Amino acid sequence: MQETFTAEPFQTMEDVEQYLSGNTITCLICGVELQRLNRHVQKEHELSLDEYRTKFGIPYSRSLTSAASREKTGSRMTPERIEKFIRDNAGRYAVPGRAAHKNGRVPAVANQWKKISERGRNFARKLVITKCASCGCDISTTALGATQPIRCLKCATPGAFKARVKYWKQKRIA
């Protein structure tokens, strides 16, 4: 039994998709090929599924089940069965204190968001110079998708100025 099949976490979503798209999934610890890794990882390697995902950079939203197995079980999930499952298990799977936004720690997801922002779909990282809607002075901003006119600090309303200061304080902490 090999101790580590691959120690590198996935860096791109394409690698994750390729890993999960076959008829079987290879355990990245010992190299065994299975249709579902859930029980194997928990019993053989004594890891939780979250620990396995974190170790190898698999997003938390992705199932550790092969594409063929997902397709086979997914065809049986009718909307009525899904509603019944939700109704019967309401609140059962909520874990107190567990953040829902863990995906930021997975390199493949972080790299995907970085790539999207560099392409220009998300202007969070790219500063541009634009004119103030009131006085016409130059402003450095990332708010290209804004629906309201962009104004400089001198022309901003007191409420808008207060909101900006609050945002800047949050950004400084984060």
What attributes does this structure have?
mainly alpha; 7% strand; 174 residues; 4 strands; single chain
Write up what this structure looks like.
- There is one protein chain.
- The chain is 40% helix and 7% strand.
- By secondary structure, it is mainly alpha-helical.
- The longest helix has 16 residues, at 158-173.
- The protein is elongated and about 65 Å long.
- The two termini are 43 Å apart.
> Which strand-content bin applies to the residues?
5-15%
Low-confidence stretches: 95-104
Structural class: mainly alpha
Q: How is the biggest beta sheet arranged?
A: 2 strands, antiparallel
User: What Rg, in angstroms, do the CA atoms define?
Assistant: 23 Å
Look at the structure and give the mean pLDDT: 76
Question: What strand order characterises the main sheet?
Answer: 1-2
Q: What would the principal axes of the Cα set say about the shape?
A: elongated
Number of strands: 4
Termini separation comes to 43 Å
Order of helices and strands: HEEHHHHHEEH
Number of helices: 7
What level of helicity do the residues show? 40-55%
Can I get a quick summary?
The chain is mainly alpha-helical and 174 residues long. The protein contains 7 helices and 4 strands, in the order αββαααααββα. The chain has helices at 13-20, 38-44, 49-56, 67-74, 79-88, 107-119, 158-173, and strands spanning 25-26, 33-34, 128-131, 138-141.
